[in-house]
């Protein structure tokens, strides 16, 4: 199924199964009710316009975001001359994020000094996962896959992380793609990773073309077992992959798309590479008027999840 | 109103207004529906047994826990010989926590090495708060007050915080008190802080008797404005005070209740004080069989929020 959420009687909206330009409502009403085991019987078909959607899961009980593409972490550290602990290749970085998600076309509020950035990610939505679940149990609990834009306020993050308790100000609400797909809808899903090119455009120009199935050191079952080490995960838990990031073929820091590289999925990474290569970051963070587009296409070039398309506005 | 949630058709339970040993269901069904503006019409009275309750808010969209009693933070730092940044007196520490809450009598799973600890806190539940809200707007948004036991796994926290992204493993689900009260039910609520003695017992003996209204450097409106600096807060946001902690009258690190002091609201703090005074921590963290009790009484010695009473079990 391809699931979307349309505006409804509550902020949780109205869950529908999308079939081309038509959709059919699920009897249980909302994505959360469906994940809790609610009635998935499909109602009568009605017209569907993808521009009307909310996030498929507008709010949930938990969002845990990993940093699976360790290349990204290593680059960021290298730029500031810090060694990356070897343990980062074995023990996932993960933070507890805000589990309220904006529609795919929500504007991104930004203030001078916030250093507003995108982070293009893959995310999964789980059913219930008991504490201490095995990777096999975790894999079975993956109900849906979607794309996610983890908005990051780089100007606020260093001071916030220095306090030692993780992100609050630095990570406002993320956006989700219009559609969340069950695994059977995705030939590129191998049960643990999503294979496909993540297409990120900035102001209409290609910015990132990384392969989501490559260089993902911790796959989703691994991230889920990490998340469930000391807690039960409720149905509706969203697990993010972290910014998708590929190593360059020669092990170097990669090149922009315009120079034949795979580009970057957040501005911070491009700035890091600029700093490594030229001693200075040239690409500015997002400012009002900037437009971000995140997409992944299937073999027929059609968008798999619909397009995240957001414009930055003054907060 | 004194609100409680009884088991119901979904994990969100069935919201009731408690009147002595009777209760009346709210028409909207759940705490989240009520906070979203749902119908608060009361139905017919039915018998109420406080031993049956879930958390008043079994799961929500967001839990942000502050560290308002800066004395606690300063003590912990002093024990390890670290200076506390002066900014900690002006800029609240806050982390994004797990917004799933256990019933007040849920057992606390623990493994050897986890260093399982309680943290007795006051918490508020908010209505919707827009980004950038003022302290006055924040104060008006406070809908309910309750007590909270923020379970902390001290054995896992140092390594987790060293990774830089805050808590996941170290902070499993917190427990809430049986009842959440509207401000008008609490003479000790001054609009920003709750005044009253937080009564924490460990294995039947008094462990903490701190004054919740004293030494709370950041009041709840301040914590809420901090939380809302870069994001809208959805109705149902839970804001924790952090471990309640009082300075000693002479500015010293305090004394156990048995020695005439106000005691401690987490074992870590008692261990810190033991380390400061004697060079070594004597009190062990919780082990299976240990019993924790958290309560606050009104002027008539009756429990205001019902009692959090949890036993530690082997995970």
TrEMBL record, chains A, B:
GO terms for molecular function: hydrolase activity. Keywords: Hydrolase. Transmembrane segments: none annotated. The keyword NADP does not apply. Residues 65-312 form the Fumarylacetoacetase-like C-terminal domain. This is Fumarylacetoacetate hydrolase family protein.
